[in-house]
Here is the input.
Amino acid sequence: MTTTTVAQGSAEHGRPRILTSRYAIIYLFVLPAFVLRMLYSFIPLVQTVWLSLTNRSLVNPGAFVGLQNYQFALTRDKTLINSLGYTIAYTAASTLLETVLGLGIAVLMMQRLRGRGFSNFVMLLPWVMAPLLAGVVWRVIYWEQSGLLNFMLLEAGLIDELVRWLSDPAMARVSVVVLTVWKNVSWVALIFMAALGSLSKEVLEAAAVDGANALQRFWFVTLPLLRPSIYLVLMLRGMAEVQTFEQILGLTQGGPGNATRTLALYSYQRFFVELRYGYGSAINVLLLLLTVAIGGVFAWLLYRSGTRVAR
Amino acid sequence: MLRLVQYTLLLVTLVLLLFPIYYMLATSVMTLDEFLRVPPRLVPGNLNFDNYPFMVRRWNYLPGLFNTIMIAGLSALGATLLGGMAAYSFSRATFAGKALMYSLLVASIAVPAMVTLGPIFITYFEIGLLDTRHGIILVYLAGGLPLAVLVLFTYYNSIPRELDDAAAIDGCGWFGTLFRVILPIALPGAFVTFLLLLIAGWNEFLFAFVLTVRPEIRVLTLRLLEVPSGTNIMQVPYDLYAVGGVLVLLPLVPLLFRVQRQLVTGITFGAVKE
Amino acid sequence: MSGSQRLSRRDFLRTTAVAGAGLGLTATTSIGVAQEEKVVNMVGWGGDVPPEFMAAVSEETGIQINYDALPPVWNDVMAKITLWGQTQFDGIDVLWADDLIGGLWGMNGWAEDMTNTNAWQDNKDDVVDNVHVLNEAVGGVFRLFYFLGLEPFFYNKDLVPEPPTTWEELFSIGEAVTDQENGVWGWHPRTEGGHAFNTVLLALNHAGGDLETLADENSLVAFQFMQDWIKRGISSPTIISENNFGLAAAGKVGMWWNYEGNYNSMLTVEDTVFTEENLGLARFPMGPGSDVGLVHGWGYLVPAAGQNKATALELMDVLATREKMKDISVRYNGLVPAMNSLIEDEEIVALARVLSAGPGWAELLRGAKFREPIVNSPQTTQLWQMFEQLGQQVLALELTPEEVQEWAVAEYDIIKMGI
Here is the structure.
């Protein structure tokens, strides 16, 4: 962050700056955005934490119950434990896959291939598609007995029997990851393209002179240089995937059974479908903790890698 | 040989990325019976465009489109404006609480939407903002602020301070510097920010679903759940869903084609450079 | 958050005045609010026919009806309607509600109890018994059913000459029919998203499970029975995610259940293998507990928060009559009515072919229950979610019947604790 101060009119020197109109203007510029954002992020957050300590619901006006919701959730609610487990697994799998595939696509796209503009356009399409819509479209593609995906795989001889994309709980968990990766991989690729573009040519060329082959150059030179970008992508995608709601709503609605019910879907079900405001809020607090943990870890790694590279 | 491999890989990637969107498009010009046929068809037998006028009429496409443009557009505009103003202060001034406010704004990215949704719903209900256009616009606007501040802060910082100094010598103050130096250079950045937020608002579903009730103010993503039944009310009208999907996505496509280069810069600006 | 508050976006005074008039009107239905043009905002369900019906009613009564249709996917409908009720949305004066929606709205005080209206009193003697049983259970008349349907047992007579009468026969016939190589399945109940709760309720009813606890042996028997469909190979594991309609119409399913309206659709869909000759309908095979089916229905519900409630109730007097019930049934090409005299009406029997199919409608309907205990609790959505997930979890085969039961009992506990 910058600490440079703009050249200020000499007339202002020596006066308490709080009194100058310029100082008021600075705050006038910052405060609307700041206050509004706080009103819509941290204030509701505090409300959620408060709600989670009550039993407010459709049938209860809401009394303070302490940690009862959390106790119940963590000791007796199996759906929640499963949901927590799947959320973590889903986030890890989709974030890692997006990063690896995104990096691969970025490296490919940086090989000075023709039609870069067209490729960018096509790549952006899944990303600009409404997540809910993407979920619905993929659901149809995944149809097992009459769907296109199974039909094409059968025709191509890649499978012998129909794959149960959405009816088999284990497979459905994977199918959801596939959809997420499809939706977001291009975003990751674009970030890596920019990062690759900004790498210093001299270092790469020096390595080439040293006789390293392409794979070695990538592994020992490019990858370490990309480390900050990788952490950044892991952080942003991790925080986004852990909250995934809409595309799963479109694809499986959390099913079969509760197989793909991520924390966001589960808290939505409790809060908005079943109108249990207290209990739903407790699940939301768990979701928040998970998001902050992911953000925190990678932000720290990012910060550390940034300072090390700088040195 | 290497080139061939590279182009093949590129082609495979693009086909995989494009395929579901193609299938949606293909479905939208099939009849329901043709779509439900086993085995399924990759290419429609006859092009049947009847669904489009039907959906535009019965699905009330144009009012939905208007709402989407209004809500996504105004919120993106507001966030770009307010975020741009804040970023200007953050970039060009020192003041008490600057580090704290900046950190809080950026850290607010880590607050999941789902966590804020419940309290916002309850509060909106209590103060009468529920089911209003400005209510939902404010949510999107506030949601877009961190990105707007980040992107524009980076843009402003890339503008050399010498230009500020030169402007100061010319007698420019806070506003003078903003309008003469910063804005002309940062305008493309602001435009990209606006587009990113417009797309985000265009596709948002969760908040719109919970916070709006009246059909008159509902946006297109919500209307996706309100596709009318076709001729057979016992069947889910997948053909009409596909038409709806195309109609939601379509207005973004020319926009995307024209601005994909800037958009790429924008995404990467917001993310890579901190 | 409960009923005391309403949306304040419309003119408050006017709304209060109309609501006040509405209260007066409940007692003496003949007084109208004649100074204004009468308008009713109605939200319904279905395709192209109802707007015409409503236009005709509009002309006859002088009440302008603004009709809007619900989305066709059940989960979406439920989510939207919960939101409307929860927010005391005042923009709907008449809502077409099924037993679940009616349960949710009625039991939470979001719907008018129409017990004392002429609309109910004048026609109730003709209404089928199943509805009276439901009204008794929910303690009020929260909707006037224009349609009462069934979740019947279908079979393909080309594959299954005689329908099974016991669970064991279901398996033996199913095994004989199933030909996995050619994608032919013996038994394909409808269990995909939003419909699994019906299937599990059917199995529980047939097994004689205790619906108030789900903790008994019989409930376990029901879960085991359902898992055996897949384990013994008479049902495809994909029943949990796929509709059975297309497969059945293609002649690839021996036995299935689907809603009664599918009887007509099955005969008319393109490339169907069915005529009235080979499309079979029967009571469910007898389980250890019973063979009773499930009924569901749609009716007119008047929201308590509607801004034109008085006019809406006035409209009910017209819509609830036998004449209008018949009209809508005919215009829907044979929607099954909820009135005894209409079920026997020749014109309707000719249109709703399901009425004369199989052993006859009265026999199919005998003892069939609405979706209790879901529809007679204020926690309708919680129970509905629980049974829906219960059905899906049983059929996902990831958990043993015992584990599923353990889950269900714990879930029931949360619901009863009210947290």
Residues 49-268 of chain B form a domain with the MetI-like fold fold (CATH 1.10.3720.10). The first helix of chain B runs from residue 2 to 28. Chain B touches chain A through 98 residues (CB under 8 Å).
